[in-house]
UniProtKB/TrEMBL annotation:
InterPro entries: TNP-like_GBD (IPR048366). This is Transposable element P transposase-like GTP-binding insertion domain-containing protein. Residues 68-180 form the Transposable element P transposase-like GTP-binding insertion domain. Pfam families: TNP-like_GBD. It comes from the Eukaryota.
Amino acid sequence: MCKGEKLKSITLNCIEKLQIQSGANVRAVVSDQGSNFKELVKSLGISAEKPYFIVNEKKFYYFYDVPHLIKSVRNNILQYDITFKDNKGATWKHIQAFYKSYECKPLRLAPKLTHMHINSNNFQKMRVKYAVQVFNESVAGGFSTFVSFKALLGGAAGTAEFLEKFDKLFDLFNSSKYRNAKQYNLAFMRADYQLAFL
């Protein structure tokens, strides 16, 4: 495994070569969340308040890869209630209650949400695929339907909003096509709705 300082040298060298030799307009660096990349982030002086580093008077934003961030968020909500914008809350207890309310019924509002998603073992918790499926549009839609019919109470509207936002965030940060049925899955083009959502 490459250490943070060595990664810093490699990263800066790659940016310089991409920009000077190929003319690429590098704007961001993306990595996973390994300990060596956390060292890189620290050595570049990146923080929540300053999510970028500067090379030759140009800003370069740093992101952890979105699929693994989604997995981290899912693993955190398994253990902790999450507070977000305007003091709204999201909790795994609401997602469990939603699943339990229909798990034995033939018609399910969120067929992608299964027993395995709710009661994951340690191996399943490592799979990005399962985390992304929890924050899926169908799960968010089914959950929101339950909330609107008051089948889930106790602040469940916050969890519904949280699920919807993470579905859109995942789509937006994994977008690449100019045509797609899902609006937030269209290639990022700085459209007003994309910028407003961010």
